[in-house]
């Protein structure tokens, strides 16, 4: 069988470029090879160690105490509405003390983005009893913002039902987590002399 073989066209094939350090390029145009600095064995090695917060006594956080400042996550408000729980009252029932729910700009932005379906959550978030915390970062990704905030200031309790956020906050010592279980609020990693008994 004689005939011309069909040539398969290759897509996204780029022309090969020679290296800038190639011998064929004129010496004046050729890129210089990086010069490795020799390490001085007698030089003192510096490494940055994160400073341990002074408010922690091992895992015990001495900055926690009434009135409690509780950082609220977007899904915590939505699940509270689903469970028909009053946010401020249920927090007080859980901790037996005055609670100030705090809402960051990015959490507020997330609720606003959810649209008309979550207008009840937005109305709750705009409650005058809620303390508004300004955010200095770009974007409205709340999880990173909350994690960064509790790493810097260990005076907050984080209220969330998000498994991924809980996992990230458990790695930070001295930050309790509030969650919803059995149609009531519960607290995790709280010192025993504070708050309600665990169920």
From TrEMBL:
Main location as per UniProt: nucleus
Sorted keywords for this record are:
Nucleus, Ribosome biogenesis, rRNA processing
The record's listing under Gene3D superfamilies reads: 5'-nuclease (3.40.50.1010)
Q: Which InterPro entries match?
A: Fcf1/UTP23 (IPR006984), Fcf1_PIN (IPR037503), PIN-like_dom_sf (IPR029060), PIN_dom (IPR002716)
At the top level of its lineage, which domain of life is listed?
A: Eukaryota
Subcellular locations according to the entry: Nucleus, Nucleolus
Pfam families documented for this protein: Fcf1
| Disordered: region residues | 22-44
GO terms of biological process kind:
ribosomal small subunit biogenesis; rRNA processing
Q: Where is the PIN domain?
A: 68-167
Please provide, in alphabetical order, the Gene Ontology terms of the cellular component aspect for this entry.
Answer: small-subunit processome
SUPFAM superfamilies xref list: PIN domain-like (SSF88723)
**Family, per the entry?**
Belongs to the UTP23/FCF1 family. FCF1 subfamily.
**Complexes and interactors:** Part of the small subunit (SSU) processome, composed of more than 70 proteins and the RNA chaperone small nucleolar RNA (snoRNA) U3.
UniProt function note: Part of the small subunit (SSU) processome, first precursor of the small eukaryotic ribosomal subunit. During the assembly of the SSU processome in the nucleolus, many ribosome biogenesis factors, an RNA chaperone and ribosomal proteins associate with the nascent pre-rRNA and work in concert to generate RNA folding, modifications, rearrangements and cleavage as well as targeted degradation of pre-ribosomal RNA by the RNA exosome.
Instruction: State what protein this is by name.
Output: rRNA-processing protein FCF1 homolog
In which organism is this protein found?
Strix occidentalis caurina
């Amino acid at each position: 069988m004689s005939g011309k073989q069909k040539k398969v066209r290759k897509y996204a094939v780029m022309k090969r470029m020679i290296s800038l350090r190639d011998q064929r390029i004129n010496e004046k145009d050729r890129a210089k090879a990086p010069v490795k600095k020799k390490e001085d064995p007698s030089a003192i090695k510096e490494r940055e160690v994160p400073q341990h917060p002074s408010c922690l006594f091992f895992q015990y956080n001495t900055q926690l105490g009434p009135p409690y400042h509780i950082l609220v996550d977007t899904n915590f408000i939505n699940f509270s509405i689903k469970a028909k729980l009053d946010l401020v009252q249920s927090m007080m029932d859980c901790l037996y003390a005055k609670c100030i729910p705090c809402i960051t700009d990015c959490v507020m932005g997330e609720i606003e983005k959810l649209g008309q379906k979550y207008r009840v959550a937005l109305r709750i978030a705009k409650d005058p009893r809620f303390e508004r915390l300004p955010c200095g970062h770009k974007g409205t990704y709340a999880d990173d913002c909350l994690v960064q905030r509790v790493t810097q200031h260990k005076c907050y309790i984080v209220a969330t039902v998000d498994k991924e956020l809980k996992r990230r906050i458990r790695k930070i010592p001295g930050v309790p987590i509030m969650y919803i279980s059995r149609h009531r609020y519960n607290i995790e990693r709280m010192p025993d002399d504070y708050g309600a008994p665990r169920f």
